[in-house]
């Protein structure tokens, strides 16, 4: 069967809690996901938002049209290592990364994070998620959880909020970076 084109945006946590070694594992994982889709002007196009306290649109959907270019850009992403502004990152994905999305093409965001949003964050997570829903973006949440963390329940609540319904199909939890496929 021919795979349907989609607009795919990765929203990647590059905060302090991730750490530089794990950030490399995330890059490998995302690169492997890119390998599984057909990238091209009339196929799947890929964008990427990288965030910590600052939120960077690394590349939008129209920037790279080959798998090689996308993977090279992912490999070159810098580790940021500060706070976790997930709401701001989701808003940037909605407003900027998906800005050039093709009409009638499925829009998918994959949010990869290992911690709850920073309390000081100006953009509230629920607002950002609602904006993404209104923009018809299907959201997947990949949470790297530390079961001994006292803020665990709150983090899971946030992942539930981010993930499109049904959560069972859109929310994935792993407890160790090394178990990333």
UniProtKB/TrEMBL annotation:
What is the protein's major site of localization?
Answer: secreted
Keywords linked to the UniProt accession: Cell adhesion, Collagen, Extracellular matrix, Repeat, Secreted, Signal
Any GO BP annotation:
cell adhesion
Looking up PROSITE patterns in the UniProt record yields: VWFA
Q: Which CDD domains match?
A: vWA_collagen
Classification via InterPro entries: ECM_Assembly_Org, VWF_A, vWFA_dom_sf
A cellular component annotation (GO) from this entry: collagen trimer
Task: State whether keyword Chaperone applies.
Answer: no
Q: Which PANTHER family match?
A: COLLAGEN ALPHA, COLLAGEN ALPHA-1(VI) CHAIN-LIKE
Q: What is this protein called?
A: VWFA domain-containing protein
């Amino acid at each position: 069967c021919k795979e349907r084109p989609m607009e795919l945006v990765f929203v990647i946590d590059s905060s302090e809690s991730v750490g530089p070694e794990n950030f490399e594992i995330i890059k490998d994982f995302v690169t492997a996901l890119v390998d599984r889709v057909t990238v091209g002007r009339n196929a799947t196009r890929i964008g990427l938002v990288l965030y910590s306290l600052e939120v960077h649109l690394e590349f939008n959907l129209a920037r790279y049209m080959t798998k090689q270019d996308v993977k090279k850009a992912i490999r070159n992403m810098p580790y940021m290592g500060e706070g976790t502004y997930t709401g701001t990152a989701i808003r940037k994905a909605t407003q900027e990364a998906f800005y050039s999305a093709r009409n009638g093409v499925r829009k998918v965001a994959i949010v990869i994070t290992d911690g709850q949003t920073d309390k000081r964050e100006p953009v509230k997570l629920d607002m950002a998620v609602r904006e993404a829903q209104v923009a018809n973006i299907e959201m997947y949440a990949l949470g790297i959880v530390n079961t001994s963390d006292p803020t665990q329940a709150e983090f899971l609540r946030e992942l539930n909020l981010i993930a499109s319904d049904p959560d069972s199909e859109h929310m994935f939890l792993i407890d160790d970076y090394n178990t990333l496929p």
